Amino acid sequence: MKKWDGKSRGTLLGYRIFVFFLKNFGVRSAYGVLYFVAAYYFLFLKESNRAIFYYFHNRLGFTKVKAKISVYKNYLVFGKTIIDKTAISSGQRNQFSYEFDGIENLQRMMAGGKGGVLISAHIGNFEIAERFFSEIDFNYQIHIVTTDQEHSHIKEYLESLADRPKTTKFIYIKDDMSHIFEISEALSKNGIVCFTGDRYFEGSKFMEEEFLGKSAKFPAGPFQIASRLKVPVAFVYVMKEPKLHYHLFARIANAKHRDSQALLKAYTENLEQMLARYPLQWFNYFDFWDDLE
């Protein structure tokens, strides 16, 4: 079964349909479209179905029936996070409520003046975190390190809608490793550097750690870079709650300097805790554990 290819799922037409409903009928009406979209995914996307069914059945221990139902529910929740992200980016932020758990950890982390590294995952809706930071006087320059290679026409369309804060910049991973210098420069100015730590490309460096009862591969970059820099590191997730509510979690990573394996282990343990609470919000639709033929 194929691995992650660096491209985000979705088509330009699909995004345009969601935006049409958002602008004309509101967030909840756009949610209504998802029942048909999720049904299509559930019926026809065999590879992603196998991958997410494996997660529920083999890794979380759900029965086959519960796992099947959870696959459909997972697509629904995933679609809702995309709609929410688009709505918030296009000026409908006030339709949502939110709460923080551990924001004092981030404030204390940044008070040191060395900058900080945030590591998240493809769970929940981390991309909207920046929208909430500004409302609690957390106005630091945010640099998002990305390997995302999704089609440029989708990116351009979403950027045209976005009311993106000026405090956000992107650092793109390059073959010549120049992104390392960009990361160092960002931290030297007391900025925040954000990684996702759960996806790697075939052929790129990786590390292995037990995750949900089985060894899995993770990108080496975020953990090696974060462990070698003398800056604080935190795990941050933004999880979707019922209705239009979000919950941000921030936990300081406790690992020795230059011990990237210990940092990865702390990350996987924290990620397991989040998924125990929000099992439907795992959005990796590929053979994550190398266990599918």
UniProtKB/TrEMBL annotation:
The protein's UniProt keywords, in alphabetical order, are: Acyltransferase, Cell inner membrane, Cell membrane, Membrane, Transferase, Transmembrane, Transmembrane helix
Q: What is its main location?
A: membrane
A GO term from the CC aspect: plasma membrane
Q: What's a single GO MF annotation on this record?
A: acyltransferase activity
Where does this polypeptide localize?
Cell inner membrane
Listed under GO biological process in this entry are: glycolipid biosynthetic process
InterPro entries noted in UniProt = LipA_acyltrans (IPR004960)
Chain segments annotated as transmembrane: 21-43
Q: Which domain of life is it from?
A: Bacteria
Q: Which CDD domains match?
A: LPLAT_LABLAT-like (cd07984)
Protein name as catalogued: Predicted acyltransferase, LPLAT superfamily
Organism, by scientific name, is Cruoricaptor ignavus
What is the taxonomic lineage of the source species? Answer: Bacteria, Pseudomonadati, Bacteroidota, Flavobacteriia, Flavobacteriales
